[in-house]
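Hey, quick one: can you model this chain's 3D structure?
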Amino acid sequence: MSTKTIQGKLWSIAPQYWSKHFEPWFLPMYRKVLEQLELSNDKLLLDAGCGSGLFSYMAIQAGAQVVGVDAAPGLLEVAKQRNPQNNFLEEDLEALPFVEDTFHVVTGFNSLQYAGDFEKALLEAKRVLKPGGKLVIAIWDKPGFSDATTVLKAIGTLLPPPPPGTPGPFALSEDGKIENTLKRNGLNLEFKTTVNCPFLYANLSDGIKSFMGTGPAAAAMDNNSKKTVEDIIAKALQPYQLPDDLYFLQNQFLVFIAGK
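Sure thing. Here's the predicted structure for all 260 residues.
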């Protein structure tokens, strides 16, 4: 079974949980990228791994023409509901269905690390970029910089050990991995920054729903009951509880913008 098929199925288990309880915490990262891109109505943007379409919506509001692709049909349904006048396609990041030199901008928010072959996905993004176009890659920083790591690791205890090189949230986070891969493939790094994306839940139920919308939680339910997965998430969230049943997690992300 292909990486696209596996990941598409996992991320379609609870798309509403993802769109409502997890993705909104990425808004600081989305806004930082929009500040750098200066989009306008003559710019065509590919949102590669668009998920539930929140960044696509923001890019459209900024004036860009947007096409979104994702492997998860469940998330794509949400993206289409949010952006009914735009094209959202179920496609593989390693085999994009576009001719070369099509887009002014390609964005990959927490998506390229889930490609079966990151370098192949990167080359596909480069291929469909126009000369002078911009490629955005946004990923989790190293695990030690994010409290959400604790919860994701807890979920991971319910999963069999992954084979080496298995895609995952921190697959590209090690120092220099993105920079070296960009350079090796003829892309020029023009901008890099870290962005803090705190997660604040009004109650434990919202925190559990947030992580139940992720691919790792969906994978854990292949061999465990839903309640087992929910219970381990609840336990992992306890160190982050504040008064009035609030839960606060500090998280850090990396943003790279490269030119073709």
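One thing worth noting: The chain has a mean pLDDT of 95.
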